[in-house]
Amino acid sequence: RALDRPVRIGSRAGDPPFDWTDRATWPGSLAGVRAAYLTYQPDLAFPGAAEAVGELAALAAAGGVRRLVLLSGRGEDGAQAAEKAVAAADERLHA
Q1: What is the DSSP string of 8-53?
Q2: In angstroms, rounded to a whole number, what is the distance separating the alpha carbons of residues 44 and 75?
Q3: Residues 6+ away with beta carbon under 8 Å from 20
Q4: Which residues partner with 35 through β-bridges?
Q5: How confident is the model at residue 95 (pLDDT cuts 50, 70, 90)?
Q6: Do the Cβ atoms of 16 and 25 come closer than 8 Å?
Q7: How far apart are the first and last CA of the chain?
Q8: 57 burial level (CB within 10 Å; 0-12, 13-18, 19+)
Q9: Which helix (H) or strand (E) is 67 found in, with range?
Q10: Which of 10, 52, 3 is CA-nearest to residue 31?
Q11: Does the predicted TM-score (pTM) go above 0.85?
């Protein structure tokens, strides 16, 4: 915002809303977005986190998002799995 760039905050109370547990909210949150900073709640170590992050990353890449950044924990198994899922979406995009 300080650079006068549009910013959309993804949250359940946002407009449009975003909720990791409600995949129906994902497409609207990504519409028109070129870059996204992902943080997974509650934690990348939770069962299913890497799969959810990977699904969102694939949806983002297919929808035209060109840059994805994932907040991750260095060396954690769950974090590494999520990082690989984001990288796989990026590889499919640039294949």
Answers
A1: ---STTSSS---TT-GGGHHHHHTT-SEEEE--SS-TTSTTHHHHH
A2: 12
A3: 40, 41, 52
A4: 67
A5: low
A6: yes
A7: 33
A8: buried
A9: strand 67-70
A10: 10
A11: yes
